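Below is one such protein, fold included:
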Amino acid sequence: MLARFAPAPGTPVLLSESMWPVEPLCSWFRELALNRRSPKTMRGYAYTALMLLRFLQARGLDLASASEADLQDFRQWRLDEAGQTVGEAAWDRDAAAIGCLYDFLLRQGVVDRRPWRATTRRQRTLASGTRRDMRVRHMELEQYLYCRDVGFGGLAPDGGLDQGFRGWRPHRNRAACELALLTGMRIQEWSTLLLPELGLLDARRPRTADVELGACAKAGHHRSVYVPGDAMELLGPYLLLERPEIVAKAQGTLRRDHRDLFVISRLEADGAKVCGVLEGRTVTRSIRGMDPRLRRIAVRETGDGLDPLAVFIGAGGRMLTASGWDRVRWAAWERMKAATTGGVGPELPRRCWVYHDLRHTFALRLLIYLTRLALGDGRAQQLPMSTLLDHMSGNPLLQVQRRLGHASPATTYRYLRYLKDPMRDVDEAFRTWTAAGGASYADIARTTMSLGGGDAAQG
């Protein structure tokens, strides 16, 4: 009976000093979990709620008795007075959590209205209201190859083998990098892929693959992702050389923990469903509906041992977590920085690359290609204006929006300003200006400084 009331994995639980659940926060967390909010989102909401609760308790207040002035004071404290202040963007995330919390309190009858007024018809939250530009950082080809092969793959800058490389699983890391770039998937999407989704079970190696994303997509928005041949080909060395070794070393750990695993005995519906034992019960699950937690513990009974169903695995045979991939990324970054000393290698950004930069690179390159393709088709047809049907079906922005899984075309539209960065043309644009008139101010200054004499000194 207790299992029915157990909180979902990742659900925050806030306890008082006497170890009793703190209400109504624990009920709110439970509702968030039932609504399939991600553990990362719930963790952020929990930190915000805990800070707010402590702030109000220091004033002798609680969530029900807080006024608009109290919440504005909390905002001011977070921005300017806390031990670790935050910016407007971080406060907006806090404001979203507080708004969600008071919506819950309103539904439960704890409060009869939100304790703040809407300043406009559209502004009904505590957020700053400042619209921020989407940060788009992408890679040029030379930068990407250097990142993939030198940083993640452990090669030397000239492309040869680096005998001093002491990294771990370079084939896996290069394959993950290539997959992220050529599909545009987010890290939670590509890092949680399962072998059946790519058709890689039983030594099968399809040339391309189509993946139907579901529970692991952002906000659970389903979409189809095409995995091209180059990404599938780069998976080959990892699947042939590294993955079997990881699985073999992990057998002891997997067998010891098998009661906590989802042990799959067979695949159904052409690999779209799996059937196995989970928590002592035989169940059937749709692969597309499996969340990251379930995917992480999914293993297949092969007769020769337990084989994790995840494509990318680490020590112990478990799917790498986000923090695990972060360690891989930082190690690659340190390697790239060390290898670029002395002017070797491409120019690197000031801050470390993140996996989402590969998604931005995918979006921009695809948008540029589809735009040129659409312009070429228009010229070939020699039409002054395409028909409405041609425009709708061939619109590059709509195609990229569909591939990225953006809920709104406005998000994809922001990529337009990055198609050609005018800052790259600054030197060329002002070359004739700086060259005009012969000597530059720097030349004049050097000449003046070398004159010497009293007149020059008095100048």
